[in-house]
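Need residues for this backbone.
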């Protein structure tokens, strides 16, 4: 309370307590005036808030807002729901702690109001909010059939799901799953459902920038009102992902080799990003093909990683250039190997080949490679008869031991099983490839304690602690669309 005092004006007695005060319109002291006049009259004390149980958003003015408990965002939403607060001067508003599951929110307000000329009263009081459940439109649509407006159909004609596991991590890192209403599993891929065409188009653009693919847009008429000339369509974006994956054996068609200036046709797929990167293990040269070139030529992989065989390294000799220096390109180093197949118990058939793993291989290690003398390829190899084809094309090193993982990944739909074997191979690829790991988020797993493994030999690489994110919070699983059986 604030009152101006003038020593030249004689004092009078308060009409209630008799205390000497300066004359005012109420003839009361500030203490008695505060007890007789309620400046908070007309301000709501008990208010109902609506929260969606699915997405945890709060409703205000027919719109849903994201806000956590006891945050400035939620405080702003609550203050705007208090009726009569605009007639007073708000001085302060603070949270009063309540149990998170009590469905109650409490705010202590401090307000001021001028009741007479130059007489301002201040009061503190508590406003209670009761939180009730109400399903938002987005969650209601996600659990109701035939409510989606657009669909993105991602397909890849391969036997494993490692590509979709990698895309899942990219989607989570860039928070693209927030606009997705649901996911439906398909034999060769996944369907993503959206409430608007613009969100689906943005999601399809993400695929085009992440993997080599080609897209096809289509729409189907749902309803038509001839009186208002109103048309409603369901839009579909079909995405065909390049079927060539990391570690696949690639044999280029003769026409493509000629257009590339006589490029060596036997390559190893080294990386798949927005372009397809294939490497000649004899020279470490990288051939990068974009999606248009790949689908225009229409070739496929000659063999996949499950067709590789296990070999033991008998000898490693680095390849030197004219200046007697090792031949390196990026993370790879050229070397000559002497290999023996694991099933060759007598070790009589020693195989000479060239490899790109000279920086990590040593005698006694094991590698996986394609046996080009006996492998059954899925493409025409008649144009290779005049070339010097190596007996074995080494793919990767196989480590004898692995430590327990102290990291884990988020999941977009834990109820959707994409295969434990594929997931294990995907996590091993992440451990061994730092460049691939840099594109996604890896989280520290505090639930696992490390074993005493410092004595293990030939241990696989681990994810460094510096690359792990400390905060780990499982995201809400996206709903499936198992009840949806309509053909798209």
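Answer:
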């Amino acid at each position: 309370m604030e009152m101006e005092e003038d020593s030249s004006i004689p004092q009078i007695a308060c009409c209630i307590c008799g205390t000497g005060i300066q004359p005012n319109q109420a003839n009361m002291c500030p203490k008695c005036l505060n007890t007789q006049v309620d400046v908070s009259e007309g301000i709501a004390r008990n208010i109902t808030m609506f929260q969606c149980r699915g997405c945890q958003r709060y409703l205000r003015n027919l719109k849903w807002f994201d806000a956590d408990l006891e945050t400035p965002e939620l405080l702003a939403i609550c203050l705007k729901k208090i009726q009569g607060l605009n007639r007073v001067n708000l001085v302060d508003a603070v949270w009063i702690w309540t149990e998170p599951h009590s469905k109650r929110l409490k705010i202590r307000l401090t307000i001021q109001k001028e009741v007479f000329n130059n007489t301002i009263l201040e009061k503190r009081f508590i406003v209670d909010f009761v939180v009730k459940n109400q399903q938002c439109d987005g969650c209601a649509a996600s659990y109701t059939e035939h409510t989606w407006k657009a669909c993105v159909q991602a397909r890849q004609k391969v036997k494993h799901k490692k590509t979709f596991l990698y895309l899942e991590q990219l989607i989570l890192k860039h928070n693209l799953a927030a606009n997705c209403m649901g996911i439906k599993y398909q034999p060769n891929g996944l369907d993503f459902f959206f409430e608007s065409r613009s969100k689906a188009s943005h999601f399809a653009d993400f695929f085009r920038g992440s993997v080599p693919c080609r897209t096809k847009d289509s729409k189907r008429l749902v309803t038509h009102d001839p009186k208002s000339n109103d048309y409603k369509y369901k839009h579909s974006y079909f995405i065909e992902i390049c079927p060539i994956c990391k570690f696949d054996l690639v044999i280029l068609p003769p026409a493509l080799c000629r257009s590339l200036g006589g490029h060596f046709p036997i390559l190893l797929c080294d990386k798949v990003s927005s372009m397809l990167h294939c490497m000649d293990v004899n020279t470490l040269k990288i051939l990068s093909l974009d999606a248009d070139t790949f689908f225009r030529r229409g070739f496929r992989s000659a063999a996949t990683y499950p067709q590789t065989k296990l070999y033991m390294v008998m000898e490693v000799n680095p390849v030197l250039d004219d200046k007697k220096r090792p031949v390196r390109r990026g993370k790879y180093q050229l070397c000559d190997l002497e290999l023996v197949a694991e099933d060759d118990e007598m070790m009589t058939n020693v195989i000479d080949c060239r490899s790109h793993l000279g920086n990590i291989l040593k005698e006694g290690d094991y590698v996986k490679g394609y046996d080009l003398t006996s492998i059954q390829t899925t493409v025409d190899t008649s144009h290779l008869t005049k070339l010097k084809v190596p007996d074995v094309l080494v793919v990767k090193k196989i480590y004898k031991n692995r430590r327990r993982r102290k990291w884990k990944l988020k999941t977009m739909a834990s109820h959707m099983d994409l295969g434990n074997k594929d997931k294990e191979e995907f996590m091993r690829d992440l451990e061994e490839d730092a460049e691939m790991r840099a594109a996604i988020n890896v989280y520290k797993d505090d639930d696992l304690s490390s074993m005493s493994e410092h004595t293990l030999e030939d241990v696989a690489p681990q994810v460094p602690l510096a690359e792990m994110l400390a905060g780990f919070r499982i995201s809400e699983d996206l709903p499936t669309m198992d009840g949806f059986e309509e053909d798209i």
